[in-house]
Amino acid sequence: MIAKSLPNLFTIGNLFLGIIAIISVFNNKPELAAIMVIVAMLLDGLDGRVARALNAQSEFGKELDSLSDVISFGVAPAFIMYVVAFTELNAAAAWIVTAIFPICGALRLARFNVVAGTPGYFIGLPIPAAGGVLCTLALFHQELNTIVLALSTLLLSYLMISTVKYPNFKKIGIPKAAIWITPVVVIAAVVLAIQFPGTLSKMIFVPLLLYALYGLKKNVDRVFFFLRRKRKKAVDEPESKTTAI
Fold this sequence. Notes:
The protein is an all-alpha fold. 78% of the residues lie in helices and 2% in strands. Strands 1-2 form a two-stranded antiparallel ribbon. Helix 4 packs parallel to helix 6. It catalyses: a CDP-1,2-diacyl-sn-glycerol + L-serine = a 1,2-diacyl-sn-glycero-3-phospho-L-serine + CMP + H(+).
C-alpha cells in the first residue's frame, strides 16, 4: 500500500514546494522561490517514473499531477516574475501578462490529458520546463529590460500551447531496485537548494533555456518551410499555365 502511494507523495511534494515558492517570493526571497520550483521539477520528473517502476499508475495520480503542475510551474513562476520584474509595467499589462502564463499552462495540461501524443515527444513546451525558465529568468531582472521579460513570458506561454514537438525523455526510467534511492536524492536536492539557491538557479537556467529554444527554432523552421513551399507553388503555377497554352 505504501509503495503504491509513493508516486502520489512525490506529486504532493511538488505541490508543497510550489506553494512554498509563492510564499517565499512574497517574503522577498525570489532566489529561494526559484529554486523551490526547480526542486519541484525534480519531484515531477520522479513521480511518473516511480509510478511506472512500481506499476502504480492511476487516473487519480494523473489528475493530481496536473493540478500540482498548474500551481508549481504555472502560478508560482508567474508570481515570481510579477513580484520581481513587473512592478514597473502598467498595472493592467502586468496583470494580463502574469495571468496568461498559468492559463496557457492549464490549457497545455488539459490538452496533454485528453489528446494522444506522439511517442517520445511532448506536443508543446511542457509546463515544468516553461515554469523553470520563467522563474530562473526572473532572477536576471536587474540585467534585463522589463519589456524583454514580459515578451519572454508571452513567448513561453505561446510555446506551451503550440504544436511544436519536444523530446520527453520518458524512456529514461528508474529500475525498481533503485526506488529507495529517490527520497535520498530529493533530500540532497532540497539541502543543496537551500544552501545555494541563487547559484543553482542560474546554473539550471541555461539547459532549460536551450530546451525551450529548441522548440522556438522548430517553429521558425516550420514557418520558413511553409513560406518556401508557398513561393515555389506561386512560381510553378504560371509555368504550368504557359506550358498548357
